[in-house]
Specification:
Among the domains are: about 230-330, Succinate dehydrogenase/fumarate reductase flavoprotein, catalytic domain (Flavocytochrome C3, Chain A, domain 1); about 400-515, Fumarate reductase/succinate dehydrogenase flavoprotein-like, C-terminal domain (Methane Monooxygenase Hydroxylase, Chain G, domain 1, Up-down Bundle), CATH 1.20.58. Helix content is about 35%, strand content about 15%. By secondary structure, the protein is α/β, with parallel strands linked by helices. It binds flavin-adenine dinucleotide. Flavin-adenine dinucleotide (FAD) binds near residues 45, 150 and 197.
């Protein structure tokens, strides 16, 4: 099949791009599962935009940069916060129903590290509402063809530029789509960790696809661990939105004490990484679990404001307005990704990236809550503009450095080859909330070996086994994260090295990158 514009991913970034491209040619959107299965579909808290009377783009930028812990790309941040309200306004004009009061004014939510109320939301299922509106609009476009259950496994590279993708169709047959411009909008990667809030589709495929095609990836050591996923044996790690704490919910230890003030002056609304590590330390100190409590809030308000969370609670026999809710950290968001400029251009001609798969630099080392839906919206639209221009690549910025750890790591053939579940378990233990050189070296050794073995299973392109490809991409992403985490010998944002617990601007105010050269070596 040939088309003009190819979009891999049907979340907020891919759909917003498709809408902008509608009049420019034929568009093909591929998703690997059902249309609603994306991180976008699960987003709860909302979308941040400086739309309140007490707010401004400058204030939103300052909060974003403070959360990013010294590594935000300030140009990209300006684009995000200045253009955000316009694109959010457009979403409303298209029919997105954000919460409003009885006079029709928007009700803005509060989340950690935002100095003002700035989060537009639709109950506690904001992503579902935005996805509904975007899908409705895309389905009405005659120039867009959508292929669901199409698992993209390779980018086609011809004459140094990306010319389309190869994928497995719903029936497991291999097929190709060729296009003038290809957008990766494949979303997050938190499924490479055993404990995660992300749905099964979030395995970071776009990062691996781009990397193996020769594109530059960046900032992969920066993973955000959400502090409050449901932590009950046997139940999925359902997200307990930060908006709960924004509305007054408190974290308490097994003795019922609200402990967060002891760890950070921001208390329950301290930055996410601080809250996540404090929960683990409090559990170690007390030997018991940590809970979220809403018991001091009006139960009618809780039911109205958080209907999906209340419903999830009912399903597992928990009254979230009254009962203690066991919570703990889980991998949630990938700050790094395919290195792009502020138009979604990557280092490879013909290839673009937007949304969670991209590293625009807006999040730096840590994402401000509710900025990611906004990023997908703004940069999805901008990538669509760039896809209509003559081919150009994102320049290599001066503050980039290779994340090749110049290793003390022995030959990959010596490592143990791991199955997918073991990769996730290893990542959680060695590259999770608390990282050390010793653990990361062991992890990289095993991941190097596993990656070599996984590559042998899929190349030369002989395998028709989608699971072999899934494993290959999963372990590629895991290995890139672990290598970058090993290289960065400091702590910053979502990356915490127990052996280097301080931020070190003198040596590490840089972005670590990885890129394959023609001989298959990383540089
Ligand atoms: C539980 C939860 C709550 C969240 N809450 C918020 C929030 O309140 N506010 C906020 O701003 N952010 C939130 N986030 C983060 C936010 O939802 C995501 O960062 C954002 O939606 C990502 O959008 P995207 O378009 O980049 O990717 P996604 O929405 O994840 O879409 C990815 C798409 O790519 C497709 N895909 C992936 N790999 C392949 C492949 N190999 N072949 C074909 N198709 C592929 C998938 O099928 C899917 O259609 C939350 C995330 C989670 C998991």
């Amino acid at each position: 099949m040939t088309t003009d514009f190819l979009i891999v991913g049907g979340g907020i970034a891919g759909l917003r791009a498709a809408i902008s491209l509608a009049d420019a040619g034929r568009i093909c959107v591929l998703t690997k599962a059902d249309p609603g299965e994306s991180n976008t579909g699960y987003a709860q808290g909302g979308i941040a935009a400086a739309m309140g009377d007490d707010d401004s783009a400058a204030l939103h930028a300052a909060d974003t940069i403070a959360a990013g812990d010294g590594l935000c790309d300030e140009r990209a941040v300006s684009v995000l916060v200045e253009q955000g309200p316009r694109y959010v306004g457009e979403l409303m004009a298209w029919g997105t129903r954000f919460a409003r009061d009885s006079t029709g004014r928007l009700v803005l939510g509060r989340e950690a590290a935002h100095r003002v109320r700035r989060v537009l939301h639709a109950g506690d299922a904001t992503g579902r509402e935005i996805g509904r509106v975007l899908w409705e609009r895309v389905r009405a476009l005659s120039s867009v063809e959508t292929l669901t259950h199409a698992l993209v496994t390779e980018l086609l590279v011809e004459g140094g530029r990306v010319a389309g993708v190869a994928y497995f169709d719903r029936g497991g047959a291999r097929a190709e789509v060729r296009a003038n411009a290809t957008l990766l909008a494949t979303g997050g990667a938190a499924q490479v960790f055993r404990e995660t809030t992300n749905p099964a589709v979030a395995t970071g495929d776009g990062i691996s696809l781009a990397y193996h095609a020769g594109a530059r990836v960046a900032d992969l050591e920066f993973v955000q661990f959400h502090p409050t996923a449901l932590n009950r044996a046997g139940a999925p790690r359902f997200l307990m939105s930060e908006a709960l704490r924004g509305e007054g919910a408190r974290l308490v230890n097994v003795g019922g004490d609200a402990f967060m003030k002891r760890y950070h002056t921001g208390g329950d609304l301290a930055p996410r990484d601080v809250v996540a590590r404090s929960i683990v330390r409090e559990e170690e100190r007390t030997g018991g679990q940590v809970f979220l409590t809403l018991a001091h809030l009006d139960p009618d308000y809780v039911a109205r404001r958080f209907p999906s969370i209340a419903e999830m609670g009912r399903r597992i026999g928990l009254d979230v307005a009254r009962d203690l809710i066991p919570v703990g950290p889980a991998a949630h968001y990938m700050m790094g990704g395919v290195d792009t400029d502020e138009w979604g251009r990557t280092s490879l001609p013909g290839l673009f990236a937007a949304g969670e798969v991209a590293c625009t630099g807006v999040h730096g080392a840590n994402r401000l809550a509710s900025n990611s839906l906004l990023e997908g919206l703004v940069f999805g639209a901008r990538a669509a503009s760039a896809m209509q221009q003559p081919p150009a690549v994102a320049p290599l910025k001066a503050d980039r450095r290779s994340s090749n750890p110049q290793s003390r790591i022995p030959n990959p053939e010596m490592g143990r080859v791991l199955a997918p579940a073991a990769v996730r378990d290893l990542m959680w233990r060695a590259a999770g909330l608390f990282r050390t050189r010793e653990d990361l070296e062991r992890a990289v050794m095993a991941l190097d070996a596993t990656s070599l073995d996984a590559e042998r299973q899929v190349r030369p392109a002989t395998t028709h086994d989608p699971d072999a490809w899934r494993h290959f991409h999963l372990v590629t992403v895991a290995r890139l994260i672990a290598r970058a985490a090993l290289r960065r010998e400091e702590s910053r944002g979502g990356h915490f090295r127990a052996d280097f617990p301080e931020r070190d601007d003198l040596h590490w105010k840089v972005h670590l990158t990885d890129q394959i050269d023609l001989h298959g070596q990383t540089r």
